[in-house]
Design goal:
mainly beta; globular; 7-stranded mixed sheet; 4-stranded antiparallel sheet
Length: 124
């Protein structure tokens, strides 16, 4: 099976932090760009962050800029999303997806693999 598996979601208080992981199974992430998405009930899926292969340039949506940080560890075949200063509006199911790089972009030119999602709930 070729699969991405997210983990690290859960319940956290406003202002708290979580680190999400996206681990590849059955293939290597070395040459893939990765995107993180989220979807809250009744809302469209939203692009959150991307990281390219190689030197790993990054992209962040304005809504998370300065609070979230994407990184990758190719030796572990894993991409991370560190989420700090969490707000209730960050509550969503978070998905990672992988695809070939788009030249000049942090995000893939298409998405070939998707994870199953992990729930993040920010509530007091």
């Amino acid at each position: 099976q070729l699969q991405l598996v997210e983990s690290g979601g859960g319940l956290v208080q406003p202002g708290g932090s979580l680190r999400l992981s996206c681990a590849a199974s059955g293939f290597t992430l070395d040459y893939y760009a990765i995107g993180w998405f989220r979807q809250a009930p009744g809302k469209e899926r939203e692009g959150v962050s991307c990281i390219s292969s190689g030197d790993g340039t990054t992209y962040y949506a304005d809504s998370v800029k300065g609070r979230f940080a994407i990184s990758r560890d190719n030796a572990e075949n894993t991409v991370y999303l560190q989420m700090n200063s969490l707000k209730p509006e960050d509550t969503a199911v978070y998905y990672c997806a992988a695809g070939p790089d788009l030249v000049g972009s942090s995000c893939p030119r298409r998405y070939d693999y998707w994870g199953q999602g992990t729930q993040v709930t920010v509530s007091s």
